[in-house]
Amino acid sequence: MLQLLGINQYYGGSHILRGVGFEAHVGEVTVVLGRNGVGKTTLLKSLMGVVPVKTGTVLLDGADITHATPYERVRRGIGYVPQGREIFAPPHRRRKPAHGPGVAGFRRHAVPGELFELFPVLKQMINRRGGDLSGGQQQQLAIARALAAGPKLLLLDEPTEGIQPSIIKDIGRVIRMLAGPPARWPSCWSSSTTTSPPSWPTSTW
Mean pLDDT in each 10-residue stretch from start to end of the chain (205 residues)? Predict the structure, then answer.
């Protein structure tokens, strides 16, 4: 599904990523480990197009997306949950996950019901502002926002940072389920959102 070939990235004169290359396949959960400052976030930003790749190639399903913009990558099926979540504080949470489908080219604005099955706490907090949610609830909201676009590849940057253990278990459960076969996906596919189960992540970071 995803293939990196000789990725190099720089910040000024600092060489951050040095010839990075690997493959992530369908149905896998791939984890990038390393201490602070080694380039994990830079790698994900490069994969998402937030930071242009200096040299090297990024392939998604065999197609070269090295120079594609972030919104083009979303349309091709990449979802991205950045470190720090980047949840806007003022609007109510009900509007949040609906932002994803618009970017991906969909015209629906209602929150897909299956997201509430994945993260029941979001339905309980439906009328709260994003900034009023706990850190763990905001992380679940950020993941739901990325999933609203129906990605086939989900990039998660520090998905459990600063989160209580019980919510970490919930997020881990969702990641394992999304990487598994469709039979394990939520059962509440609504005809008002999709005519068949959406192509949710088959490979997760």
Answer: 93 91 88 90 94 94 95 93 74 50 48 81 81 83 88 90 88 86 49 38 48
DSSP string for residues in 154-191: EEESSTTTT--HHHHHHHHHHHHHHHS-GGGS-S---T
Whether the CB-CB separation of 69 and 49 falls below 8 Å is answered with yes
Asked if 80 and 29 count as a contact pair (C-beta separation under 8 A), the reply is no
Residue 55 one-letter amino acid: T
Dump pLDDT digits (tens) for 91-103: 444 555 544 544 4
Q: Report d(CA 131, CA 128) in Å as an integer.
A: 8
CB 56 within 8 A of CB 8: yes
